[in-house]
Automatic annotation (TrEMBL):
Naturally occurring in which organism (per UniProt): Glycomyces paridis
Location of the HTH tetR-type domain: 14-73
Keyword DNA-binding on entry: yes
Keyword annotations of the record: DNA-binding, Transcription, Transcription regulation
InterPro entries noted in UniProt: Homeodomain-like_sf (IPR009057), HTH-type_TetR-like_transc_reg (IPR050109), HTH_TetR (IPR001647), Tet_transcr_reg_TetR-rel_C_sf (IPR036271), TetR_SbtR-like_C (IPR049445)
Protein name, entry field: TetR/AcrR family transcriptional regulator
MF terms (GO), sorted A to Z: DNA-binding transcription factor activity; transcription cis-regulatory region binding
Gene3D superfamilies listed in its UniProt record: Tetracycline Repressor, domain 2
Region called Disordered, residue ranges: 258-280
Biased composition (Low complexity): 264-280
């Protein structure tokens, strides 16, 4: 009898902790991080002392909720790799992260360091997210689905941009449209052209797309000083729309990408250290 009592207390404590976490996650998602601990305790059906026993501060509770969400995002990234092709898995992961931000005000505030979450995202939490993000990005670039000049810092910045849109835009339709515009700028077509409306020679092309407006052939090209290709030194053609091209042709772009891969490759026999994938 004496041995069973402590065990029952532990089970009860674990159950209360789970109830507090589930309630906090729901209230943060619905109302943001301004929810008081007392409100969370009442909604969970426990006393305030129970909440403080498991989470001494509100920040500790918020950090635990965020950690759980981060683990879920990581698991989703790994699943997408198995479900889809290398290119689409990367884009689907970015969309999934933005969907979570749209649906969860608390996590949105936490990732953007807004509301009552004043400290930056913990370094270890960022590494957990960076690991699947970097892996999916590398897979997509390896098959030529994503432009080679994008790195994991750029991709993470875009995710945070999606979070900012979720907070500031009143229209979800507008937010989704802008997100698709941004994602479209990362794509590289199967034939090696960058998705900015130009081919390797800078000639504008008409492309079918359900996620953006068509640009008429012959549209006026904006007045810009031509850039030099860092590979061959030739002038880089200027397009009417989209992100300025960095290389003069797909051949130079692929050559630069191969050189970057060689430079970034670790010495033989030295695999990546745990927890450092994708971190800078």
């Amino acid at each position: 009898m004496n041995a069973t009592a402590p065990r029952a207390e532990r089970v009860d404590a674990q159950r209360n902790r789970r109830k507090v976490l589930e309630t906090a996650d729901r209230l943060f998602a619905e109302r943001g991080t301004a929810v008081a601990l007392g409100e969370i305790a009442t909604a969970a059906g426990v006393g305030a002392g129970t909440v403080y026993r498991h989470f001494p501060t509100k920040e500790a509770l918020m950090a635990t909720v965020l950690d759980l969400r981060t683990e879920q995002l990581t698991a989703r990234g790994l699943a997408l790799r198995e479900e889809r092709g290398p290119g689409e898995a990367f884009f689907a992961f970015l969309r999934h992260v933005s969907e979570q931000a749209f649906a969860n005000r608390g996590i949105c505030e936490a990732l953007a360091s807004r509301g009552e979450w004043r400290r930056p995202l913990p370094t270890e939490g960022r590494c957990v997210v960076d690991s699947p993000l970097a892996s999916l990005l590398l897979d997509a670039q390896r098959v030529g689905a994503v432009r080679p000049d994008l790195d994991v810092d750029d991709a993470r910045a875009m995710m945070l941009g999606f979070v900012a849109m979720a907070q500031t835009l009143a229209s979800p339709e507008r937010a989704w449209r802008l997100m698709e515009v941004l994602l479209e700028g990362l794509r590289t077509d199967v034939d090696g052209t960058v998705a900015d409306g130009t081919d390797a020679d800078g000639m504008e092309m008409k492309r079918n797309s359900a996620t953006r407006n068509e640009i008429p052939v012959g549209a006026e090209i904006r007045n810009e000083t031509k850039r030099k290709c860092p590979v061959c030194g030739a002038a880089v053609p200027v397009s009417a729309t989209g992100r300025p091209a960095k290389y003069c042709s797909s051949a130079c772009r692929q050559k630069a990408f191969r050189e970057q891969r060689k430079t970034a490759a670790p010495p033989a026999g030295s695999g990546p250290r745990p927890g450092k994938v994708g971190s800078r």
